Amino acid sequence: MDRTDRASRVIAAPPANVYDALLDRESLEAWLPPEGMRGRVEWWDPRPGGGFRMVLTYLDPTDSPGKTSDATDVVDVGFAELVPPERVVQRAVFEADDPSFAGTMTMTWHLAAAGDGTEVTVTATDVPPGIDQADHETGIASSLANLASYLEGTD
């Protein structure tokens, strides 16, 4: 699994606010699920070595069958590194019977001041081959758009 997927976006909020939204349970539930999904955090431990479990549910699973069940993706995420307000490194493992979704994907959220805002770059490495690259990058971009909307107070 040598593939790397990425997306970035400038968000009109300071790096500290973006960082806080990455480590707040209710915030994460609100903005992380990409378009067409909703999310629920089952457990939460926001510290290095901690993590969370998120259940992502497809609003219409007809064309997007889930990895864990027909309508869901369940992912266990560990916090590998927390560097306020610059970086969050996560290790994500999907709950799936299909071996093409097996393995640990690393998600690095890099935050850099950009004028009055923050450039957020998400880099996913060791992406399981069962995850379509175009769909994954679209999903990351959708989460970033949700994060921008959440922090900027826009729809």
Number of strands: 7
Q: Any idea what the CATH architecture of the domain at 4-35 and 81-152 is?
A: 2-Layer Sandwich
Helix percentage range: 10-25%
- Main β-sheet: number of strands, strand sense, barrel status? 7 strands, antiparallel
Mean pLDDT: 94
Q: How do the strands line up in the largest sheet?
A: 1-7-6-5-4-3-2
Radius of gyration: 15 Å
Pick out the low-confidence regions: none
Question: How far apart lie the N and C ends?
Answer: 36 Å
Instruction: Provide the β-strand percentage band.
Output: 35-45%
Class of secondary structure makeup? alpha+beta
CATH homologous superfamily of the domain at 4-35 and 81-152?
Answer: START domain
Quick synopsis:
The protein has 155 residues and is an alpha+beta fold. The chain has a domain at 4-35 and 81-152: 2-Layer Sandwich (Alpha-D-Glucose-1,6-Bisphosphate, Chain A, domain 4). 23% of the residues lie in helices and 42% in strands.
